[in-house]
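**User:**
Everyone, produce one record:

**Assistant:**
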Amino acid sequence: MFFYTFFVWIVQSGSFASIIILPLYFKWYYLFIGVASFILYPLILEVLYNLHSKLITNINDEVQKIKIQHKKKIPVIYDDNYNIRACGIEKAHPFDSTKYAKIFDCLQLSEDKNIKSFALSRQLMVELGMSRIYLLKLCYSIYVSRYVEQPLCCLPECFVRSVLLDSMILQASGTVIAASVAVEKKWAINLGGGFHHASCDDGQGFCVYPDISFAANFLQKFHGINNIMIVDLDAHQGNGYARDFLDNDKIIIVDAYNHGIYPNDNYARQAIDLDINVTYYDKDDDYMKKLNEIEQQIVKSKPEFVIYNAGSDILRNDPLGALDITIECMKQRDLRMFQICNQQPKPIPILMLLSGGYQRNTAQFIAQSIEDIINSRIK
């Protein structure tokens, strides 16, 4: 991944230089050669990179590498490169893109105790459903700008990739690794991911890589787990993976979200098996009662694996979630989800993802919630 990013920097810098140098030292119309190379280089680069990935990547070896990540470590997946640092530009978005480091620091886990993420290869991403056309679009800032809903189209693609996309790839990869770890350990937490607005051929809402779809497809293809439930308790509708699994009856979707806010995706809503409306007027007791509906759905569906998207944007005063849930209730919610899965006649492996949350002072509370879960599972 980082070699690819470095190569992008070199090639784009060369293309940009050609726009300036060619017309200065040759005929003025050579400018068009420089402009053409600047526009077309991502296409050529993507073709070459995919060819390179296909030649050197052995998917079976990569899958085995993912499967052995659980040895003698706490099933918490994290890498410092999860954090998006872009010379301060990231602060223009309401999402705290460095909250992962704050949460990890609050957990006080030593570097050798947690599991580090590593980037999935292009070949494996394609194997897990990622569209090659979509991967190509990610080479152009104008498309990435639309997916993350920020004015990045004026920035060079090499900069966007190195400060944004590389971090998101690592987080999405961490979700796949965590899913595999949870099969063995019966639980795992990725301190990132939960890009529930991203599908395998499109992105939106600051979600680029469809990590939830990746994880579900990985479990089905490489672990032989067929019946998977996605429980999405982020304040926003999880429409990306829902679009991916619209015709897949082996994926059960439970989504409890604020129906009155973004993204209002009625097409994706058709994929939801249990659709729960959460409103600003729901207090803690009302919210926890909704978990009883989810528990009943789990008992009824008997999933073999649960992917739990634990957005913290349900909290009071979150600028985008528009809900009124307290910190204590959020912590109870997270712990309750793990208890529900563990208390089934056959305990169900559960993977937790952090997903959304748009307040910059909640890292310590999310860490407390995760700490409660770790303490309940490690006795």
Summary: The chain is about 50% helix and 10% strand. The first helix runs from residue 2 to 25.
